Each structure stands twice: as structure tokens, then as C-alpha cells.
């Protein structure tokens, strides 16, 4: 049979008569007065002193003998006490004002385990039968820490079900078993909750212990790396001898006011089971009862609901909608029935059950020390199920589940320890219990290696750090007007599960604080930056506080709260809202679009006109006006102009490898031929005039050979430049993704820009020479002198191509091609119109002027 031996720590004291003495003439006399109370005796005799005596006894204990004893040290009952002034002996009037914790109670409870029953003499115990094999402690950090300080010296197994204290792992970890999972899993779980609901602007309210220091120093930076920052980090008022109740209340009010002024909607409450007592005073004593209605509380699993008697009637609305983590638990079959069958009349007198019964039902038993003359008498038949959950819960909490499992862990470890003995000792009698008491340290080894399924069907085992291999439940607190509440499991954190299943939560099952009207709360320092905006840090503010700046032109942001905007891929462009990238359309000057149609029509029209002019000149080839100024040059010029107009068509349509090779080179050579013909015509005019002078020696320079030589030599130079261009860096089809924001321009890359401008430059040189010569010869006396018309044509030609260079450089995309086509058409049309329109007018409109007589008359 396994028996539990529990110490329930309280702040209660008493002194018996042997603790008082009277000093006379240097001797001490024990004092006893049968009629007067001890305090009255003390007050009447100034010589009476109080000596340092046995420690004040722990008020509530429970012991039941058995084959195996498991001890428990728990802090579940809170009492009030004045500060000790050492002006009088301790007595029951000590307890009336301030709530506090004294580590000495834990030390005393730990040492009593190794004292004779009902006598506090540490390390002296009659017999070893009643020595505990293990100790279960909790739920507060202080209880666990101070218990470990004493019990580790005795090498006894310790099972902690509350906050795990920071211990010397080299000496204590082998004795120290935590029924509480790795706290890092809890902190990561809280982080997952915050990230899941996008709560980036939070506050922290914490108790005073080393675990909080670890949270602040380790976890807060980890949260910051995920974009979460804290508006405040406050401490819950500490209860100790150094402050009185009014001081605690004032400190609590100040803390509450800081929270109320904050813009955060979510707070992490990092505390323990006794933290709830203090939290319940916040709305009660604050001038503005807002803390319960304005914030979503996220509570750590070390916390649980508890209260003192005077808080019984206080509202618990502050818990509605709160989210907490709890050590994973399952309802144990028969647990509620076991609780509801408790009967204080069958329990030992003044047991913890009776003490609880009197507080819960606000009554007293007839044999109780409590004065019940005007109060309600406890019958023992009161129903526990009638109590609200704020007074008594009948469901198994995480702490209860941990204690339950701890007992079974000890049982399985003992079984494994006995099973490992030799067969001839496995059937030993009860005397083997004496051997067990001498080998308790061996039990720790078996605890580390056990693995079993409890009665709820869950596997129990420990990891290498002595922590129970378990996870956490995510609890949503729902309160009711009758001071009751319900814990709703809305998710879980299972570190042993696959990565994608470690965190799980059901949003639809969560009840939010009433202020939010069942809408998911937001907790941000400012509104999220929308798509198309990026964050800009606010000076002297936490990084969670920022301004939202529109993305610069050409950049986008497609997520909320982006740190910076980014460029779209080269084949995409930003939309108007700058929140997404749109694929660019492939663009080129096509025959189907209006601009392409217009340029194509112009090129074909001018080609037709040129063809008609050529046909006219061929038809009237024997007339004087056609023969003048070298008929072959005229044909060559008209053919080159025809090809120039048709060359423009190479620039329209989808660029291909062949068209890219021909575009510029064909244009350059053809135009060079045309300008060379014009230059030759001009030179012929000058030479012809010079030949007509008496005694001129220029006759040998006048002839068809000279004109042909001029055209071929000038064109050969341009052809050489184009050949060199094609041989070194020829044009090729390319995509221009930079020029246009919304289009990918399919173009002909010129290859060598230098060669391109060399071709244009040479053509410009020929045009300049032609213009100069024609300008000088414009007034020569000749009836069919073309010099003046060539001057006008070259003026048009040079003006067009001088304008072409800046226009070409300033336009983008397909309009660059359109500019070059326009320049080709305009300059060619200028040559055609200025040189041939007067002659066509005479040939067609004034044929009477096209004869030798008219030529001679005009010459004379």
C-alpha cells in the first residue's frame, strides 16, 4: 500500500506554557498558570520572558501509515500576519494583516520528514519504516527551491509539479524530477500564439522570481527577433515583511494605471498559482476598473485560479476570454466521483478537509476552534458540486494531473527497482523495507528509465534533463455571472509531434473578452502598413512602432508591414497601386497598329510616287530636261530613293535576325548612294558651267565616267564601314526591359553603337559637302540648273538628320524605330520633292518649255 504524507504550509503559530519562563536571581523558572491565559500572565508580570523554543508548528498535516510512504510539501493555504517586531511572544494574534511567504516553513516541513512523528528533532527518528521514499512538492518556485535545498542532502527523489527552480545540475539533477515539461516549449508556444493572431505589440506583467529573469533575458530577445516588442514590463507587487498591505495596494494601483494607459490589447502574465490572488485586487482597488475588460491575458501554465477568503464575492470577469497554457492533462476516470464523495465528518479532526469545508461553505464544525456561536454549523452533508468553480473545481487541473502522475511514477519506479533484484530476494518479506530506506538514492536511476501508460491512456516518461516528456494545452477561460468559470481546451503544443503538428489551435472555439464583441482582438502599436507601403522607423519608439510610407516609383510591396519595397522582375512592372507585378507585354512596331499602318502607308505611297517619277523620266528620256545634268545619275538617284522608301519597311514588324542585319546597313548604303548621286549632280553642274567658259581646261573632267566614279567611290566607303560593322559587332534581335515600364520592347540591338554613328556621320558628311557645293552653285546661269533645288533638298535632308540624333536618343521603345523611319521617309521625300517636282511640273504640266529653243533662249 502506498500512503501519502502531506504538509500543507500555512503561516500559523502557537506557544505552549513550557515556552514561557520567569527570571529571578539569575535562575529560570518554567511558568504555568492554570487560570489565566498565557498572554494575560505575560502582560501582568514584566519579568516574564519568551525564550527561543521549538518552531511554530505547521498547522495542517495529514499522515496515513502504510508499506511505502510518499511525502508531499505543498503551499495551498494563505494566512495573514503582521510584521514581527520582537516586542512580544508570537501568538495567534500575529495573523491579521499582511500576506507573505517565509522560506522557513518549507525548510521546516522538509526536516520534519526525517524527525520522529509529532516531534521536531531533525535527523532523529525512531525506526525507518516511516521514512518517505519520495517527495512531491509544489506548486510554487519557492517551495520547490527550498525543498530541494534540504532534501538533496538526503538523496531522496523529488518530484516537482510547479515552477522549476534554477538548481545546481551537477549535484541535484539526478535527484530532481520535474512533472512540468521543458519551460522552453511553453515560451515557444506563447510565441506561436502571438504570431498566429499577429499580436506584435504586447505587455508583460510578471512575478518576482528567477524564472522571470530568465524570461526577460532569454525569451524577450527571441520574441524581438520575430517582430514582437513590449510596451511595458512590470512586476507584480511583492509580498514580504518589508511592505505592508497599503503599500502593496498602492503599488498595485500604480501598476494597473500603467497598464490602462497602454495601447496594448494583449498581456503576458508570467506568474505562479499565488499570482492570481494579487491580480484579483487590481480591478478591485483601481479607480478605473478597466484591466479586466481592456486586455487579453496570456497566462503561463504555472498559474492557476486561487483566491483568499475575502475575495470570494469579487467578480472574476477579468478572466473572461483569457488564454493560458496548462500542463497537458486528461480527465481521469472516477476522479470527480472521488472528490464528491469526500465527507469531512469521517476525516481526522482539524484535517485540511475540514479547514477547507469551513471556508468553502462558510460554516464551522461543533468541535472546531472557530467560534461558531453566531455562525452556521457545518453538517458535512453540503454538496461540493454546488460550489462555483471560483471556490472549488471538480475537474482535474494540470497541477492535479501532475501530482496524480507523480505517484504512479514512484510506484512504477519502485516496481522496477524490486524487479531488478535477484530472485532469492524478490520474495523477501516486509523486512526488505528497511533495506529500501538505505538505498533510496537508487530509486532515481529507475525513475529516469521508466515508461508506462497511466490510467488515462497516456505515456509517461522523462527526458535526459529529468523533465516529464509532455506538452501543453491551450486553455480559453470562460466566466459566468454566478462566479463560476469553465476552462475550454482550444489547442495544444506537442513538442513530440511532427514539426507541422507541434502547434495547433482552433480560433472558432475561442471566446474573446466582451469588449471585443467576439471579434479577434488586434494588438499593434499602429495600424499595419497596407500593400504598396513600407515601414519607416519612428524615432525614440520601439521597433514595433513605425510610419507607413508609399513605395517609390517602380517598386512594390505585396505584403503588409514590409520593411522595404522591392523592384519587380525585369519582365514585370508595378501596377497603379504598387502592390503587385504585372507581366510586361512584348512590344514592337507592328504592321497592325495605327503607327505602323501610317508609316507603312507613307513608305508605299512615296515608293509609288518615286516609281511614277522614274517612269515619267524614262518615258521622256529624250527630252532636254531629262538629258540635262546626266540622265543616268537621275535614274540612279530615283532608284536609290525608291529603295530608301522601301528600306523603311525593314524597320516595321517583328525584329528577326535577317532584318536586324539588313536594317541599318541597307539604309546606310542606299542613302549613301542617293547622297552620292546628289553630290555628283552638283559637281557636274559646276563642271558644266566651268566648261562653257572660253579656254577652259575642265572638259576632260566632264563625262559619265567622272559621275560614276564619284558615286561608286563614295558608296564604297560606306559599304566598307557597313561590312566592318557586320564583321565585328553586327546588330541582333534583343529584348529591352529597361526603357519602358510596362512593356518589353523587342528591338534590334545595334551591336556596336560606334559603328552606327560612324555610318550616320559619314552620310552626314556627304550631305554637308553636297549642300555646300550646291549652295555655291545655286546662282549659276543655266536654264536647267539643279543647284538651287539640290540646295533646298540638302537643307531639308540635313535638318531632318540633325533633328534625328537628339530625338532618337530621347525616345524609348518602338518609338525610337518610328523616329528613324520618319527620318528616312522625310529626308527621302525632301530629296524627291525638291529635286524632281519642278522637272515633273515642266514635263507633265508645261511640255512647251521642255525644248532646245527654250533652253537656248534662257541661256542667252
What would the keywords be for this entry?
Rossmann fold, 6-stranded mixed beta sheet, 8-stranded mixed beta sheet, 860 residues, alpha/beta, 25 helices
In brief:
With 860 residues, the protein is an alpha/beta fold. The chain has 25 helices and 30 strands.
Task: Give a description of the structure.
Helices cover 40% and strands 16% of the residues. With 860 residues, it is α/β, with parallel strands linked by helices. The protein has 4 domains: 2-180 and 399-461, Rossmann fold; 182-327 and 468-525, Rossmann fold; 533-583, no CATH class; 594-859, Rhodopsin 7-helix transmembrane proteins (Rhopdopsin 7-helix transmembrane proteins, Up-down Bundle), CATH 1.20.1070. The strands form 9 sheets. An 8-stranded mixed β-sheet has the order 13-12-14-15-16-19-20-21, sandwiched between helices. A 6-stranded mixed β-sheet has the order 5-1-6-9-10-11, sandwiched between helices. Strands 3-2-4 form a 3-stranded antiparallel β-sheet, covered by helices on one side. Strand 10 (157-160), helix 4 (169-172) and strand 11 form a beta-alpha-beta unit. 35% of the residues are buried.
Topology:
Blueprint: E1 2-8, E2 20-24, E3 27-30, H1 38-44, E4 48-50, E5 60-62, E6 68-74, E7 80-81, E8 98-99, H2 103-112, E9 132-138, H3 141-151, E10 157-160, H4 169-172, E11 176-178, H5 183-196, E12 201-206, H6 210-225, E13 229-235, H7 245-261, E14 266-270, H8 275-279, H9 281-285, H10 291-294, E15 296-299, E16 323-327, H11 335-340, H12 352-361, H13 398-419, H14 423-426, H15 432-437, H16 443-449, E17 451-453, E18 459-461, E19 472-479, E20 485-493, E21 503-505, E22 533-537, E23 546-550, E24 555-556, E25 566-567, E26 572-574, E27 581-583, E28 585-587, H17 594-619, H18 624-627, H19 631-647, H20 657-691, H21 704-728, E29 732-736, E30 743-749, H22 753-776, H23 787-810, H24 814-845, H25 852-859
Parallel strand pairs: 1-6, 6-9, 9-10, 10-11, 12-13, 12-14, 14-15, 15-16, 28-30
Antiparallel strand pairs: 1-5, 2-3, 2-4, 7-8, 16-19, 17-18, 19-20, 20-21, 22-23, 24-25, 26-27, 29-30
Helix pairs in contact: 2-3, 13-16, 17-19, 17-24, 19-20, 19-24, 20-21, 20-22, 21-22, 22-23, 23-24
